[in-house]
Amino acid sequence: MANTESGPLLSVHPSSCLVDEKIEVEVKHLPADSKITLHALIHSDDGDDWEAFGHYNSDSSGTVKVSRDKSLGGTFEGVEDMGLLWSMRPVPESKPGRRFRKNNVQTPVKVVFSVHEGHLDKGFKHRTPLTSAAAERWYLTPDVQRVEVTERGIKGTLFIPPGSGPFPAVLDLWGGQGGSVEYRSALLASHGYVSLALEYIGMLNAAGQLQHVDNTYFETAFTLLKKHPKVCPDKVAVMGMSFGVSVTLGLTAYSEIVEPKCVVCVSGSHIMPLKGSLADVYAALQENVDKTRYDEKMRIIWRDLLLPIPVDPSKKVKMGEIKCPVLLIAGEDDQNWPASESAADMKKMMEKAGNSHLLTVLSYPGTGHLIEPPYTPHVRFSDFKLLEAKTKVVVLWGGETVPHSRAQEESWQKTLDFLEEHLYDNSREVTRC
User: pTM for the full model?
Assistant: First the structure.
């Protein structure tokens, strides 16, 4: 390809922003009607390389604008302004079972965009691009404070927005993989919420043994968050993902201490609420282990462990007891939890109890279990560490890339809208505590 006199110019705007913000990628000073490949590359915190690419033809002025022009092939097709991010996948030489997660929220996700001559599908690592540009994607704005929490036996990370407050707050509960998962809480804090990313699965006691927490642990965490000097105590929400949904709904329905202003439930169920300790829930799940299925590549499907939806009310959260607004987000191709079936049953229970006016259900076709903040890679399957056995398996999460990515974008915006509606007043200021 013969370059124009000044050579191709690649711009990414903004070059530094939050991960849920859109960017504009544009190439100028190309020859008219030329074929190029736009490539994006991320080196993850886990040491894996993720890539996406699209095939473009420049217009008569030698310009390619991703938000305007169609990708004719690659990891996505059509006019997709954020396709270079949401269609990312591990590079071909990667080990199977990779999952994209941000482990250190105090550093950005660095994306290197590059322009290559022709329509390419491979070999980017060994080619010299015509031009390149880098961008930074943050979960955490620089002025958000990150504080590790170990008070009263609680383990987690607190994120505090800048300013005197008081702010609304979110207790953030992730799922069965356990460990410290901070990136959603960091992003929530970047949007103005004090957020506590609570660890509760896979923790070890002083003897190095797995510690199975009970309701008291979550009640203590909620109380700590509520009483924080930067938090408005009557404006605290709980957000659960996967197994965290069962915990969230159980606490909301039964606890006299956990009284959230609203709750958000992503990819979970109301079946087998936490009544004793986590050990009791694991034991109940183990009773149904014979319902485990595998796909053609021997990837585990766990959704049947909770199916059919129980008729026995003692095996489900009493949804009629819930007195605050609930946002349910479900993927209809969730292969890990029966999220859509559970959402339908919860709606039915609340209609019967007369509190369905509190319920909002977002149900997405073609969407799997791992519904993350937007513009992050869709992962259909990945490695999963079994805590008790200390071994790894490959779990099928489900979903197809395009509808799953659309669902991530829409559900995240509706989550922010839902939290703002119930935790802020119309002027975006917290009402007087």
Answer: 0.94
